[in-house]
C-alpha cells in the first residue's frame, strides 16, 4: 500500500498564499492596527447553535482534575475582551476549528482573519474590507445592497411580508427541498441556494434580518423596520467575510446567549458552557466598534482561481 | 438496506428517493458561516434516467437501494419480455419489460452483452455497449466508388434504427454504430 503523503496544494499555490499573507500583514501595519494572538483553547464554547466546536481535556501531569476545553471557532470573544481592556484597533490571523465541516469550500480547520475598529460603524468597516480585498484581488469596491433587496431581486419575495408557506413553496420548487424548517432556516436555505451563487461580482449584503443578528446590534430604519447591523461580503458566489457593528449591551448579549441555549436544546444539541468573561467585559464597557471575520483560504482561492479549498491549504483533512 | 446520512452520499451510492432507486451523482456541502448546513445533491432516477437536484438538511438520511449492474447476454424476445443471461457462469436469466429496455431498443442484438441494472433482483434498465454491429435492411442503392465521404443518406438497420451513412453503403452491409451518438462508425 502506498501512503499518500503529498500536499493537496501545489508548492506554487503555497508560495502565492504566503505572499498574500504578507500583503495582509503590511495592510494592517500601515494602518497602525495592532496584531494580537489569543488562545485557541477556551474554557467556554461558542453559543451559535449551528457551530460545533472540537473539545479536548487539559490533564495536569501527574494527576488531578481534568478540565474540558474547546477549540475556538473564531477569536471573537477574547478579542472583544482585549478591546474592553483598552487595546484599540486590533487584528489577528489564526487557525479556527469547526467540527463537521468538510466540503469544496470547507475544511474543519481553516485560517481566519479577524479585525476590530473602535470608532467605526459597519459602513466604514465595509470601506476597509473593500480596500483589503481590492489589494489582494485587484477587484473594484463591492456593490452594496440590503439583504431584503437582494433577496427580492433573486427570489421575488419580500422578507418583511412573505409568509413561511411562500418560503417553503419556493424552497420546494427551486431547491427540491421537502422538510420542516424555522423561518431563518427557510431564509438561509433560499439565500444560500438562490442568491449566493448569483453574487459573482463583489457584493456587500447588509441589514440582515434582526433574527440573524448574531453579535451585531439591531438598528431601526426610517420605516421603523428592525434589522441587524451586520454585513457579509460575497465574491464569485462565495461567502468571504461577515462583519458587525458590534453589540455592546451586556444584558442583550446575555439574552442572546440564553436564546441560543434554548435553540440548542430544541435541536437536541448538547448545551455548552457560555463565555462569562465576555459578558463581564461587555459589562465593564466595550468601546463602540465594528468587527469583521474573513476567510483567508477562500480569499486565496479567489486570488488563484482555485475551485476547491484543498488546492490552497497544504494538507486538507483527508491528508491531515 | 442500511440508511445513509448526507455525509455518506458519495457519487455512485444507490438510495431510495420518492419510492424510486436513484444514484447519487454529486453531493455539495452548503453552510453559511452563521446558520444551518444543507447538502445539495444531484441524483439520477434509475427508473427513468432523469437527473434531479435535491437539497437535504445535513444529517438527514435516505434508505439504501438494492441496485446492482450486471453484464448479461441478450438471448431473445418473446413479444413481452427481453431475456438476458448472466455471463458469470451462473446461467441465471432475467426477463426485462419494454420500459426497462426502452432506451436500448434501437441497439438490441442477440448474443451481445449488455449492462442490466437490477433493482431488488428485477431489471429496471438496460444499457448497450458503446458499439454494436447491425445489418442494413433498407437504404438507397450504393454509389459505386464513392468511398471518400461527402454525401450521406439514411439507412434503416435491422432493429429499426435509422442512421446516416456514406453513399456507398448497401442493403445487407453490416455496420458498426456508436450507440452513444447513434452515429455510423464504419463497415464491420
Commentary on this structure:
The complex is a heterodimer of chains A (320) and B (188). Chain A is of the alpha+beta class and 320 residues long. Chain A has a domain of 187 residues: Bira Bifunctional Protein, Domain 2 (BirA Bifunctional Protein, domain 2), CATH 3.30.930.10. Chain A has nine helices and twelve strands. In chain A, helix 4 crosses helix 6. The longest helix of chain A has 20 residues. Chain A starts with 10 loop residues before the first helix and ends in a 16-residue tail after the last helix. With 188 residues, chain B is mostly beta strands. Chain B has a five-stranded antiparallel sheet with strand order 9-8-7-10-11. In chain B, strand 10 and strand 11 form a beta hairpin. The interface between A and B is medium-sized, with 29 and 21 residues. Chain A: One of its GO terms (molecular function) is lysine-tRNA ligase activity. Chain A: It comes from marine sediment metagenome. Chain A: Keywords: ATP-binding, Ligase, Nucleotide-binding.
Topology:
The complex is a heterodimer of chains A (320) and B (188).
Chain A: H1 11-30, E1 34-35, E2 41-42, E3 55-58, E4 67-71, H2 76-84, E5 90-97, E6 109-118, H3 122-137, E7 143-146, H4 147-155, H5 164-175, H6 183-195, E8 203-208, E9 218-220, E10 226-235, E11 238-245, H7 250-267, H8 276-285, E12 289-295, H9 296-304
Parallel strand pairs in A: 1-5, 7-8
Antiparallel strand pairs in A: 2-4, 3-4, 5-6, 6-12, 8-10, 9-10, 10-11, 11-12
Helix pairs in contact in A: 1-9, 2-8, 4-6, 5-6, 7-8
Chain B: E1 3-5, E2 14-17, E3 20-30, E4 38-45, E5 51-57, E6 61-63, E7 67-77, E8 82-86, E9 93-96, H1 98-101, E10 113-119, E11 122-127, E12 131-139, E13 152-157, E14 162-166, E15 174-178, E16 183-187
Antiparallel strand pairs in B: 1-6, 2-3, 3-4, 4-5, 7-8, 7-10, 8-9, 10-11, 12-13, 12-15, 13-14, 15-16
Amino acid at each position: 500500500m502506498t501512503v499518500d503523503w503529498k500536499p493537496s496544494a501545489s508548492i506554487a499555490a503555497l508560495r502565492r498564499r504566503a505572499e498574500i499573507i504578507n500583503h495582509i500583514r503590511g495592510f494592517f501595519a500601515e494602518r497602525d492596527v495592532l496584531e494580537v494572538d489569543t488562545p485557541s483553547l477556551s474554557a467556554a464554547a461558542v453559543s451559535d447553535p449551528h457551530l460545533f466546536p472540537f473539545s479536548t481535556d487539559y490533564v495536569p501531569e501527574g494527576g488531578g482534575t481534568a478540565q474540558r476545553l474547546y477549540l475556538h471557532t473564531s477569536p471573537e470573544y477574547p478579542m472583544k475582551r482585549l478591546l474592553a481592556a483598552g487595546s484599540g484597533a486590533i487584528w489577528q490571523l489564526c487557525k479556527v476549528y469547526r467540527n463537521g465541516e468538510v466540503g469544496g469550500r470547507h475544511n474543519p480547520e481553516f485560517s481566519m482573519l479577524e479585525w476590530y475598529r473602535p470608532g467605526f460603524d459597519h459602513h466604514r468597516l465595509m470601506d476597509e474590507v473593500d480596500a483589503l480585498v481590492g489589494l489582494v484581488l485587484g477587484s473594484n469596491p463591492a456593490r452594496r445592497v440590503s439583504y431584503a433587496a437582494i433577496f427580492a431581486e433573486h427570489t421575488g419575495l419580500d422578507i418583511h411580508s412573505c409568509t413561511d408557506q411562500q418560503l417553503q413553496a419556493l424552497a420546494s420548487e427551486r431547491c427540491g427541498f421537502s422538510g420542516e424548517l424555522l423561518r431563518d432556516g427557510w431564509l438561509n436555505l433560499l439565500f444560500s441556494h438562490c442568491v449566493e451563487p448569483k453574487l459573482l461580482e463583489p457584493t456587500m449584503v447588509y441589514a440582515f434580518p434582526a433574527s440573524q443578528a448574531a453579535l451585531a446590534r439591531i438598528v431601526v430604519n426610517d420605516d421603523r423596520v428592525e434589522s441587524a447591523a451586520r454585513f457579509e461580503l460575497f465574491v464569485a458566489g462565495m461567502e468571504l467575510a461577515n462583519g458587525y457593528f458590534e453589540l455592546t449591551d451586556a444584558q442583550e448579549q446575555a439574552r442572546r446567549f440564553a436564546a441560543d441555549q434554548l435553540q440548542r436544546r430544541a435541536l437536541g444539541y448538547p448545551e455548552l458552557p457560555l463565555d462569562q468573561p465576555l459578558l463581564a467585559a461587555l459589562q465593564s464597557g466595550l468601546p463602540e466598534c465594528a468587527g469583521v471575520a474573513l476567510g483567508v483560504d477562500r480569499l486565496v482561492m479567489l486570488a488563484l482561481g482555485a475551485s476547491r479549498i484543498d488546492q490552497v491549504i497544504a494538507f486538507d483533512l483527508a491528508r491531515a | 438496506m442500511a440508511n445513509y446520512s448526507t455525509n455518506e452520499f458519495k457519487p455512485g451510492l444507490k438510495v431510495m428517493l420518492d419510492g424510486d432507486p436513484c444514484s447519487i451523482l454529486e453531493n455539495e456541502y452548503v453552510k453559511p458561516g452563521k446558520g444551518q448546513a444543507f447538502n445539495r445533491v444531484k441524483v439520477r432516477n434509475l427508473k427513468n434516467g432523469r437527473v434531479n437536484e435535491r437539497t437535504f438538511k445535513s444529517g438527514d438520511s435516505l434508505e439504501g437501494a438494492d441496485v446492482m449492474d450486471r453484464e448479461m447476454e441478450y438471448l431473445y424476445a418473446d413479444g413481452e419480455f427481453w431475456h438476458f443471461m448472466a455471463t458469470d457462469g451462473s446461467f441465471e436469466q432475467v426477463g426485462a419489460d419494454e420500459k426497462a429496455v426502452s432506451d436500448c431498443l434501437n441497439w438490441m442484438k442477440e448474443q451481445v452483452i449488455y449492462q442490466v441494472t437490477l433493482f431488488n433482483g428485477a431489471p429496471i434498465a438496460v444499457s448497450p455497449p458503446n458499439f454494436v454491429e447491425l445489418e442494413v435492411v433498407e437504404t438507397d442503392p450504393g454509389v459505386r466508388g464513392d468511398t471518400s465521404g461527402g454525401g450521406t443518406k439514411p439507412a434503416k438497420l435491422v432493429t429499426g434504427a435509422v442512421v446516416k451513412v456514406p453513399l456507398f453503403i448497401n442493403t445487407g452491409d453490416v455496420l458498426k454504430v456508436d450507440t452513444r451518438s447513434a452515429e455510423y462508425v464504419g463497415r464491420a
